[in-house]
Each structure stands twice: as structure tokens, then as C-alpha cells.
């Protein structure tokens, strides 16, 4: 691929790889550590999960502002150095057997992680041309899929071979390598500081809230962007349902005696499907309109989710899950490749900063509804799949009616802008 001839992209890609590795290995190893040492206190494992998710609620309103207002390269690089330093403190806290301190460090490390990816994604937008956005999105999706498939296994293997302290040391090395890779990038100032240089003293709560509101106002004003961001909310629903429904299905219907084993097979099947779909989507992205890579796969996904509730064979269940993952891959690539084309570089951080909280909100709502409905109101798990299938079906129909029209309008507007640029300066940000 020509994209790998871009040295900056290669370094940023591997920086994201090592950053994700440092996050995943430590989290998985720590889960096994808690199960081994505090098996009589399962609430500790729940607390650890909260330490990974709660920071999103506390920092999401400033994450995008930081990525847009400060040097994006320094933000991403400093995230790695801060996490490396926190990992050293975590290493010491484990020797002291101080569980509260360990949870505090996990919370802080997770909070810092939230700043990394909006800054890194914004940098990628600045160093690639529009034709390469879909390829970059496909590669990032494949990276995510690999960790979904092998993350638990890698964490378990490292924990079993070199222990929790060895796993934390691997985290530290991963963050350092990621930081060094980002530092070695030669990225133009226009990509690092699209809004000009800003000092910390110029940042206040009022200005941060103003920037935060500007981000959501920009999304709402741009109808195509608003529809795409809505897609991430739908992904949150799917993530929330798939986080718990397969375990319920295995335990209460398909394989009650070996549900843990087959629940892990579910993660592997979905991850392999995502990996396959991402590869296919990356290859065909240039041959189809982005909305074509979304509407049909979402429609097929709704039908497949319906069949998940219908089947009573575990092998067929896992095969369907694999195909669902294959459908989700191109959808992620389409959205990930489309957004950088329609978002102004000066606002990319603030737009990206909305994605994680929206997905988390949808995921939390879905989990809450499942907890409320099953088994008190809905006694059969199948109906939960049918309900989710209907929601996804409506989304596919909504996209089928809206995306082609909005896409054509956007392309027509882009052509007008390009014609105007031949005789005038670039458009003002407020007119985009």
C-alpha cells in the first residue's frame, strides 16, 4: 500500500499499536491477578472495570478541546510519558499490596488514555490525503480486531509466565516505545496546531465549555456528520448487547456446563470476523461509496442478529457471529474514512471527543435495559435478540433513505468549494 510509504503514518500506526498493547495487556493481566488474589471479593473486579470506564464521564468534555487547542503531537506523546510514569507508581503499589492506590493509578492512567486517540487520530488526518482515509481507518480497525481476538490470551500468557509485575513492566516498555515513535515523527505545524499556538494560561473553564459547545453545534449543523456520529451511538448499543447476551445465551440455553469456554469462543469469532471484514473493506473501499459500505452490511447484520435468537446450535451461533463481525468491519471503515473528509481539521479533536462518550452512553443504556428486562419481564433471551435486530433494521432503513441524499449534497458542495478556491481563499470555518 502507498500509505505505508508515508513514514509519519507508519510511526503513528505503530505508536497506536504499542499504546493499545500497553493498555490491553495490563488490563487483562490485572483482571487475572484480582481473580487469583481476591477471589473471595468479586466486587474488586467490578471496581477495576469502573476504573477503566468512569474517566470517560469525567474528561470527555475537555478531551477534544485539548486535541484541537494544543500541539497534537505533544499531547499524544505526553500521554505516553505520563502513562509510563503512572505505570512505575503502579508497579510500586503492587509491591505494597495497596489496593486503593492501585485502583487510583488505574483510574488516572485510563483518564490519560482518553486524550491519546483523539490527538493521534487528528494527526493522521493532517498527514494523509483524502483518498487514504479509508485505508487508515481499515488498518486501525484491523488493529482493534487483533487485540479483540488475542488480547485476553496475550494478557493471560504474560500473567502466567512473568506475573503481574512482569505484565506491568511490559506496559511500561510499550508506552515508552509509543512515545519515542511519536517523538520521531516530522509533522508539519499546520497538522499539529491547526488553530494556532495556545498557552495553558489562555484556557479556562468558560473557554473549554465554549469549545465543547462549538463541537456539538458543529456536529448538529452538519447533517451528514450528525448522521455518522449517530452511527457510533448504534455501535454502542451493539457493544452493550454483545458484552452480556452471549454469556447469557451460553449459560442459560446453549452450553450451561461450559459457558465460560464458549463465551471466549464468541469473542474470538467476532474478532476474527472483524479482522476479515476490515481486510475486505480496506481492499474495496475505493470502489464503493462510503454509504454503500454501510447500508447493506447494517441490513444484513440485523437479519443475522435475528437468527442468533432463533438458533439453538452453538456451532451455528458462532458462525453467525463471525459473519456479523465480517459485516461490521466495512461499516467501521466507511465511517472512519468518511469523517476526516467532512470534518474541518480545526475541529477534528472536538468531534472525535464526542464518539467515546456517545458509545459509552448507548452501551450503558443497553446494559441497563437488559438488566431491567431479563429475566423479570422478558424471560426468554431470544426476544432480546429480536428486539436488537429490529432496532438495527430501522437504522439500516434510516441510512438507506438519508445517506445517499446527504452524500450527494456534500459532494456537490465540495465541488463548489473547489471551484471557488481557484479564485478565492479557502472557506471560513463557520461556513463549512
Secondary-structure class: mainly alpha
Mean pLDDT, to the nearest integer, reads 80
Q: Return the CATH class of the largest domain.
A: Mainly Alpha
Number of strands: 0
Known CATH architecture of the largest domain: Up-down Bundle
| SSE pattern | HHHHHHHHHHHHH
Strand content: under 5%
Q: How much helix, percentage-wise, in residues?
A: over 70%
Domain Major facilitator superfamily (MFS) profile: 8-407
Subcellular location: Cell membrane
Pfam family, one: MFS_1
Organism: Metabacillus litoralis
Explain what this protein looks like in three dimensions.
By secondary structure, this protein is mainly alpha-helical. It folds into two domains: 1-184, MFS general substrate transporter like domains (Growth Hormone, Chain: A), CATH 1.20.1250.20; 215-432, MFS general substrate transporter like domains (Growth Hormone, Chain: A, Up-down Bundle), CATH 1.20.1250.20. It is 83% helix and 0% strand. The protein is built from 13 helices and no strands. It has helices spanning 7-37, 43-69, 72-96, 99-127, 133-183, 189-192, 205-221, 223-254, 259-284, 292-310, 314-342, 348-373, 381-421. Helix 10 runs antiparallel to helix 11. The longest helix has 51 residues, at 133-183. The two termini are 31 Å apart. The model is unreliable at 426-432 (pLDDT under 50). Keywords: Cell membrane, Membrane, Transmembrane, Transmembrane helix, Transport. Residues 8-407 form the Major facilitator superfamily (MFS) profile domain. It is found in: Cell membrane. One of its GO terms (cellular component) is plasma membrane. The chain crosses the membrane at residues 12-35, 50-70, 82-108, 142-159, 224-249, 261-284, 291-310, 316-338, 358-378, 384-406.
